[in-house]
Amino acid sequence: MKRLFPALSCRAGLLMLAALATLAALPCTARADTADISAEYRTLHVGTCPEDRAKAVEPRNTCAKAELLFVQIPKMPWLDRLLAQSAILPMFSEVLGKKRLPPLAPDEVVKTRYLELLKTLIRRERPAKIDFSASLMGCDENNRAQETNRPRPEFFGPLLQLCLTHTLSREGEAHPDGPSGGSIVIDTDKRKILTFGDLILPGREKALETLQRAAFRATLKTRDDMTEAAIEEHLATPPFAFHLGKNWRIAKDGLIFGYGMYEIGPRTFGRPEIFISRHELEGIVRPDILTHIP
């Protein structure tokens, strides 16, 4: 012991070894909580915005606007890069009409890349007016209402849940596509975004689709203009024929499966969501996911 710690007593050396052993036993993955979240809201403008048009000398002056709510988790820097590569950059790629965007450079700051993409979007859309917004935050409705303030993350054990949404509209569009996006569940222990394959037990897709179909049929029954015959036709007839929903998120006592606008219904349906209770999901969803449902 004196060879290892010549300036310490034997007892002090033992205490130091015990402390080092305790530190070594701590998990490597740093967990974030509300205090670790910082939100930054950026808006970029090009041209004359709508509120200034009445004062504009040139009536053809237009405005392009893009907004982005960027959420950072300082204690989990790997998460920013994971989300950028797996969710945010593909979303921008969709909006920009490209199949693939260049990957992040090794030392590239994620926030810098986001702002570059916003500027690219605005430059490409000139002179037509566009409104673009994107946000990444917790999926809870109360949390969404605070998106411009301080959004909170949603943790379910080691699982971190966020919702990514983006909207792009152009001046003159009678029926813009509306918001797109979906929920993202990250296993902070494994440092990966969980896919539908990580959620469901092998061979249980049909059983889950049956539950989803029954839940959606019950929702359609609440609409005054939907008879039984109309419901069955809606469920089976393209372009809104019902199909298995694979975008999922954790909710109280179960899971919510989300669909995009126009995916299983017309614009008046918005973005449908289907709730399936925890007890119905037993034997369908992996137990290690079920155990984290509050």
Account of the protein in words:
- It is a single chain.
- With about 290 residues, the protein is of the alpha+beta class.
- The chain folds into two domains: about 35-195, 2-Layer Sandwich (Heat Shock Protein 90), CATH 3.30.565.40; about 195-290, Actin, Chain A, domain 4, CATH 3.90.640.
- It has nine helices and ten strands.
- It has helices at about 10-25, 75-95, 110-125, 140-145, 195-200, 205-220, 230-235, 280, 285-290, and strands at about 40-45, 65-70, 130-135, 155, 160-170, 180-185, 190-195, 245-250, 255-260, 275.
- The strands form two sheets. Strands 1, 2, 3, 4, 5, 6 and 7 form a seven-stranded mixed beta sheet that branches. A three-stranded antiparallel beta sheet has the order 8-9-10.
- Helix 2 runs parallel beside helix 3 and helix 6 packs antiparallel against helix 7.
- The chain is globular, with a radius of gyration of 24 Å.
- The termini are far apart.
- The relative contact order is 0.10.
Hey, roughly how much beta strand do the residues contain? 15-25%
Number of helices: 9
Contiguous runs where pLDDT drops below 50 for at least 5 residues: 1-8, 19-32
What would CATH call the class of the largest domain? Alpha Beta
> Tally of extended strands?
10
Largest beta-sheet details: 7 strands, mixed
Helices and strands in order, then pairings?
Elements: H1 10-25, E1 38-47, E2 63-72, H2 77-96, H3 110-125, E3 130-137, H4 141-144, E4 154-156, E5 159-170, E6 180-187, E7 192-193, H5 196-199, H6 205-221, H7 228-236, E8 247-251, E9 254-258, E10 273-277, H8 278-281, H9 287-290
Parallel strand pairs: 2-3
Antiparallel strand pairs: 1-2, 3-5, 4-5, 5-6, 6-7, 8-9, 9-10
